[in-house]
Design a protein that fits this description.
By secondary structure, the protein is α/β, with parallel strands linked by helices. About 35% of the residues lie in helices and about 25% in strands. It has one domain: Protocatechuate 4,5-dioxygenase, Chain B (3-Layer(aba) Sandwich). The strands form 2 sheets. It has an 8-stranded mixed β-sheet, sandwiched between helices. It has a 3-stranded mixed β-sheet with strand order 5-4-7. A hairpin with a 2-residue loop joins strand 10 and strand 11. This is Extradiol ring-cleavage dioxygenase class III enzyme subunit B domain-containing protein.
Length: about 280
Amino acid sequence: MGEIVAAMAGVHAPQLLQKFAGEEEEKLEASRNALLELGRVLDETRPDVLLVVGTDHLETFSLDLVPTFTLVTGEHATGEFGGEHFRHPIHRELATALLDGLIERGFDMAYSQRAELGHAFATPFRFVLGDRDIPVIPLLVNVYLPPLPSGRRCEALGRAIGEVIAGRPERVAILASGGMSHFPGTPRYPQPEFAFDEWIIERIEANDLDPILDLTPPQLDEVGEGEMLAWFVLWGAMGRRAPGRVLSYQKVWHHGQGVVVWDPAEPDAAGENDVKSAEEVAS
């Protein structure tokens, strides 16, 4: 029986990969170090595969095609950012099982065998995966170009992912790549909503995720938290909820950078799973 052995989330800001003038390097280094600590979680849990739930910044897709949820199912996860190329083997058997299982559960998934991935994957591949011999599965969630999926729909997708994994033999680590508050490409770029980040962190540490999951896409967009939709997929996949442990939170001038790890096997305070099943939400 398959299981999720690690549940993690972390920032993927381009500034972590490249040097930019005027950046707060000490804070960026703290974020890098926290991501490296997630890599040590992989060493401890020894998963068979790393599922990375990431986002697209018009590096993979364009206005010609904007899919809501996309699995990459080819031989390798490939791409580049800032002149650095990456190429990691994909766990094709599980990727195909996820594609089939999610469609069977009512999710109209897109898939690609040749997608070129951007910095939302380059960052965790460098700092979390590193040179570890662990195959990956990239999953992209549309978090920028409306219409966006709701938070509860993303949670339901995660629940369905957990159900498919439970029927498989693999031990799976899941990493949500993205977050927290920032406004790329807008006049609000230097004005992240740090106070909202702090509210989210309080809810995560208190194992009180429902108020976050109930936020609508326009509400998330208003506070620069659209990339949290990738975290919502992770939370659904975890099944039983657990308090998150914040490894780092940095208030960089343009970005609230959070790195968090959960124990997906720990039940909530009531000892029950109060999250709706994928079928219930999909219906």
